[in-house]
Amino acid sequence: MVVLRRLAGLALALFVSSLLVFAFMQVLPGDPARVALGLNAGEEAVARLRADFGLDAPLTERYTEWVGGLLTGDFGTSYLSRMPIGPQIADRFGVTAWLVAAAMLVAVVIAVPAGTFAAWRHRRPSGVLVSAASQIGMAIPSFLAGILLITLFAVHLRWLPAGGWTAPVLDPIAFVRSLILPALALGLVQAAVLTRYVRSAVLDVLREDYLRTARAKGLRPVPALVRHGLRNASIPVVTVLALQLTTMLVGAVVVERVFVVPGLGSLLLDAVAARDLLVVQNVVMVLVVAVLVVNLVVELLYAMLDPRLSGRR
């Protein structure tokens, strides 16, 4: 019953989001047909192209046709390249998914032990040092981290490429080398943010009575925390991870530009610059769907981590 209610909420959110995305695209200035033909094109040629694009149809008809295409996997045709949009988005989304997944792995691998260590030794210089480092990391934007990483590892040390992308099926080693720097640029900043939340969550757990009881029964501090504390500490951390995942999807737009990665963000920026509004509309909707699905998965994870929470939501 809970899952059905969540799915119904997801469907409603998708419907409202599609209306907002479509409406926003309609109020943007400029005519895609005139942009495609150039400013010196005649009115008759522009009118014919608008008819070819379906821009002269009523808004309700265009909206239903667009949503119907999304449901069937038909994303339409680009106004400028005249190529199907669906395959372009699928290819670019795969690149962005690799980047975001690698960045999330970097963030979790760094933040969980660092945050736990900072909480465990929060009254000692080593714990304070980790906390201070995370504060500094939070102040560095991803694009600046990317530039610093390129300067160090690509320009001076020449260990890794400064940009570009190689598909994993073509050359796995080149793929990993091209993924390391953008994943670090995107993941290190989020690792600093996540470290603060992990530290706070573990500190709260360390003050709980059940953990004191476990230690009073003879469990050593670290096993007591691992066996009885980390699961409860993971509940607020999962929430932050969901927010960070959506942040990474947006942050990937800039990072992909810095490292010349042909992902979904690059496709979006190129389409905005070229006034290819149908591509923009579809890419934005895909990002919205990804964010809403992530939020749904997190809602379901709550019930798995703590069944008591399922009845309150």
Automatic annotation (TrEMBL):
The chain crosses the membrane at residues 97-120, 132-155, 175-198, 237-259, 279-305. The keyword GTP-binding does not apply. Keywords: Cell membrane, Membrane, Transmembrane, Transmembrane helix, Transport. Its main location: membrane. Pfam families: BPD_transp_1, BPD_transp_1_N. PANTHER family: DIPEPTIDE TRANSPORT SYSTEM PERMEASE PROTEIN DPPB-RELATED (PTHR43163:SF6). This is Peptide ABC transporter. The lineage of its organism: Bacteria, Bacillati, Actinomycetota, Actinomycetes, Micrococcales.
